[in-house]
Amino acid sequence: MIEILNPTLLARAKDTGALVADILQTLRSRSAIGTNLLDIDRWTAKMIADAGAQSCYVDYEPSFGRGPFGHYVCTAVNDAVLHGRPYDYTLADGDLLTLDLAVSRGGVAADSAISFIVGDSKPPESVAMISATERALAAGIAAAGPGARVGDISHAIGTVLSEAGYPINTEFGGHGIGSTMHQDPHVPNTGRPGRGYKLRPGLLLALEPWVMADTAQLVTDADGWTLRSATGCRTAHSEHTIAITDTGAEILTLPKQARPS
């Protein structure tokens, strides 16, 4: 299903996107050496409830997972990259943490992810990987607009990631979003320009470049959810929800300090 949102729903999408961004930034500020992943999950649940919103994750039960996800935020550490299920783990100096959050409010969902390094240690290879996903995300957003095609976004993202030297997995990527978290069209993280669905104003997309340092192969944890690099290498993941407008694309999940005044 591909949804095209009317102006009323687009306004709600902006509201939801701002909430997702604010929760992620609060979680980032609280995620320090000694923080437990289960505490991050509890903080997320409270902030969602306090905002009168609903989690897109807690009851999520797709074919690729094992039963309901059962938590409110994805917490992926070091070699984990997608669908990181929170567990009893205490963050250490130098850990690379990805937080991925999807929330619905007013009948519209928004989805975003950030990767960052905990503590004072900043391994250069981890810094470079995070930067590559952020630059790829910016390139994908720049390629989005009315009349552009999904392949244009995929090509822009893939070009940045490939030039940075990272293998690209196309099994999981970006997606449409609206009244539900995951919708068509699928937006792979590499592709050919000029191909695929033609973008229209009112379409919401969640774009999410992610990479693993030296492999494109994933393995699934015993929890049935968490996806890790097959080689144990580090990973990174960046994501924004955008709205296609009459003139381009608007980022709905910008942190408060980056939003237009």
From TrEMBL:
Reaction(s) catalysed (UniProt annotation): Release of N-terminal amino acids, preferentially methionine, from peptides and arylamides
Keywords: Aminopeptidase, Hydrolase, Metal-binding, Protease
GO cellular-component term (any): cytosol
Cofactors (names): Co(2+); Zn(2+); Mn(2+); Fe(2+)
Domain Peptidase M24: 17-246
E.C. number: 3.4.11.18
GO MF: initiator methionyl aminopeptidase activity; metal ion binding; metalloaminopeptidase activity
Binding residue positions for substrate: 83, 182
Pfam families in the record: Peptidase_M24
GO biological process: one example: proteolysis
Cofactor: how bound: Binds 2 divalent metal cations per subunit. Has a high-affinity and a low affinity metal-binding site. The true nature of the physiological cofactor is under debate. The enzyme is active with cobalt, zinc, manganese or divalent iron ions. Most likely, methionine aminopeptidases function as mononuclear Fe(2+)-metalloproteases under physiological conditions, and the catalytically relevant metal-binding site has been assigned to the histidine-containing high-affinity site.
Keyword Transcription: no
Amino acids binding a divalent metal cation 2: 111, 175, 208, 239
Residues annotated to bind a divalent metal cation 1: 100, 111, 239
Role description: Removes the N-terminal methionine from nascent proteins. The N-terminal methionine is often cleaved when the second residue in the primary sequence is small and uncharged (Met-Ala-, Cys, Gly, Pro, Ser, Thr, or Val). Requires deformylation of the N(alpha)-formylated initiator methionine before it can be hydrolyzed.
Quaternary state and interactors: Monomer.
HAMAP family cross-referenced by the UniProt entry: MetAP_1
Family, as annotated: Belongs to the peptidase M24A family. Methionine aminopeptidase type 1 subfamily.
Name the UniProt record assigns to this protein: Methionine aminopeptidase
The organism of origin for this protein: Streptomyces aurantiacus JA 4570
